[in-house]
Design brief:
InterPro entries: Ribosomal_mS35_mit, Ribosomal_mS35_mt. This is Small ribosomal subunit protein mS35 mitochondrial conserved domain-containing protein. One of its GO terms (molecular function) is structural constituent of ribosome. By secondary structure, the protein is α+β, with helices and mostly antiparallel strands. The protein has a single domain (about 5-130), classed as Double Stranded RNA Binding Domain, CATH 3.30.160.20. The protein has three helices and four strands. The protein has helices at about 5-15, 65-75, 100-130; strands at about 30-35, 55-60, 80, 85-90. It has a four-stranded antiparallel beta sheet with strand order 1-2-4-3, with helices on one face. Strand 3 and strand 4 (about 85-90) form a beta hairpin. Helix 2 crosses helix 3 (about 100-130). The chain starts with 6 loop residues before the first helix and ends with a helix.
Length: about 130
């Protein structure tokens, strides 16, 4: 660029600034989808599915330490994994607020990744004991 920086330096600076979840997933990798409706003056004032939040996350964006962690994670998410697109899709309408549902989904992703790491570690330790 005109300032004498290279694209590589800019990329590294962006990575340093990018926020990550506690499990190591970059926040920019999470793609959220919501639905909104026009406000009605007649009942019902809240439409069905108005507070639903859907999040998609590509498997390549999850920093797994081993292939076993990846396999355990995919076992845990089950049918929420879309092999065609190599993405996990989670949704929530547990709370009456999109913000709360979004927080819940982010927390769920963190717990799933951390749990898959813990279970993979346990499986590795069991194999070492059996060997």
């Amino acid at each position: 660029t005109s300032l004498g920086t290279t694209a590589e330096l800019e990329r590294r600076a962006f990575e340093m600034q990018e926020k990550k979840l506690a499990c190591g997933v970059p926040e920019s990798a999470l793609r959220f989808r919501t639905r909104s409706y026009e406000r009605s003056v007649l009942p019902p004032y809240v439409e069905a599915g108005e507070h639903r939040v859907v999040v998609k996350l590509a498997i390549k964006d999850i920093p797994f330490g081993s292939e076993r962690e990846r396999k355990v994670f995919l076992e845990m998410v089950g049918p929420r994994y879309r092999p065609k697109t190599d993405e996990v899709q989670l949704s929530s309408e547990k709370f009456a607020s999109r913000i709360e549902n979004k927080r819940y989904l982010v927390d769920m992703i963190e717990r799933l990744v951390e749990s898959s790491r813990g279970l993979a570690r346990e499986f590795d330790e069991e194999e070492k004991l059996q060997a």
